[in-house]
Amino acid sequence: MNKCIFCKIIERQQPAKIVYEDEEIVAIEDIRPQAPVHLLVMPRKHLPSLNEADGADAPLLGRLFAVAAHLARERQLESRGYRTVINNGPWAGQTVNHLHVHVLGGRVFHWPPG
After folding, report:
1. Alpha-carbon gap, residue 68 to 102, rounded angstroms
2. N or C: which end of the chain has fewer CB atoms below 10 A?
3. Cβ-based burial of 11 (10 A; exposed 0-12, middle 13-18, buried ≥19)
4. Measuring CA to CA, which residue among 72, 75, 73, 64 is closest to residue 98?
5. Which of 32, 44, 49, 27 lies closest to 103, judged by CA?
6. pLDDT tens digits for 23-32?
7. Which residues are catalytic?
8. pLDDT tens digit string along 34-45?
């Protein structure tokens, strides 16, 4: 089976600008940013989407958002706000089948999205 692009990035088989990593999480800059700050925060564990997560993954899911908040603070986004997004499935715009949280900031966002 071919590894997904994010697994290749995590294993350093594909280049990316890594901005954070620990034993469970890796975060990179998006190569097609939709905002001045656009980061992707992903688990090292391959989960194709949120659909495959179960109760045992709850601590990992919480960790994804804790790291997202940490990175937003590092980039001084907390005072004006930022958006976190998980696209789940093709209709939602998921293009890489590896669970990841988008952290977007540095501009005004509107509602509803998309």
Report:
1. 8
2. N
3. exposed
4. 64
5. 27
6. 999 999 999 9
7. 100
8. 999 999 999 999
Q: Quickly state the pLDDT bin for 1 (edges 50, 70, 90).
A: low
pLDDT digits (tens, 9 = 90+) for 45-94: 999 999 999 999 999 999 999 999 999 999 999 999 999 999 999 999 99
**How far is Cα 107 from Cα 32, in angstroms, rounded to an integer?**
16
CB 99 within 8 A of CB 53: yes
Distance CA(63)–CA(51), nearest Å, equals 17
Residue 27, H or E segment: strand 25-29
CATH code 3.30.160.40 for 5-105: no
